[in-house]
Amino acid sequence: MAGEYARMRLFQAVRRFSQATRDWEQAVRYMTLPDERFDLTKVSARVYGTRDEALVIQAAAGLDSPELELTERRLVLPTAEQLATMKRDAGYDLPDDRPAYG
């Protein structure tokens, strides 16, 4: 399925970014909060202004599933512009590939 492949590519790109970005390089550095432990969409809303980027938060945190607990820690996330490029490169920028979060 093309949508799932694009999702996987985006997840991998964000994960690599999170692990490889040095302290002096451009990125969003975010300290997670206790109320975000089981709701990645809260981090997404606080960082990107939308709850739709929970997959990005999951990838940056190294979580295999969005249901896993997000411990309090510093996340290294792509900026909105960097994320847009990652999505385009992964083929994730198509409307059908965006997950629905309620």
Explain the overall architecture.
The protein is mainly alpha-helical and 102 residues long. The protein has one domain. It is built from 4 helices and 2 strands, in the order αβααβα. It has helices at 2-20, 40-48, 54-61, 80-90; strands at 28-31, 74-77. The protein has a two-stranded antiparallel ribbon with strand order 1-2. Helix 1 (2-20) packs across helix 3 (54-61), helix 1 (2-20) packs across helix 4 (80-90) and helix 2 (40-48) packs across helix 3. It is globular and about 35 Å long. The two termini are 23 Å apart.
> What letter string, H or E per element, gives the SSE order?
HEHHEH
- From the alpha-carbon coordinates, what is the Rg to the nearest angstrom? 13 Å
Low-confidence stretches: none
Helix content: 40-55%
DSSP summary: helix tally:
4
Write down how many β-strands occur, each being a DSSP E stretch of 2 or more residues: 2
Distance between the termini: 23 Å
Biggest pleated-sheet summary = 2 strands, antiparallel
What spatial order of strands do you see in the largest sheet? 1-2
Beta-strand content:
5-15%
Number of domains: 1
Structural class: mainly alpha
List keywords for this structure.
single chain, 46% helix, mainly alpha, two-stranded antiparallel ribbon, 102 residues, 2 strands
Can you lay out the helices and strands and say which pair or pack?
Blueprint: H1 2-20, E1 28-31, H2 40-48, H3 54-61, E2 74-77, H4 80-90
Antiparallel strand pairs: 1-2
Helix pairs in contact: 1-3, 1-4, 2-3
